[in-house]
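--- STAGE predict ---
source: upstream dedup step, 1 unique chain passed
mode: sequence only
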Amino acid sequence: MLDFAVEAANGAHEMTGADIETMRGEGRRNEEVMHIIEIASMFSLTGRLANAFDLIANAEYRDLGGYSRPK
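--- STAGE serialize ---
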């Protein structure tokens, strides 16, 4: 499932029906496959928007630790 999600986020234009069938073959319903694609796509979209506009995370997120602003 994680490989599928990464492919949806980074290379959706290369996905085929075979990718969907693989997920179905693992027992996932169409709704579950769609949710995986939606979440991966939104994660990718928000990251790209933040990078394009040079946005930084809010203080609450930064305070969770492990965050460093790219140079």
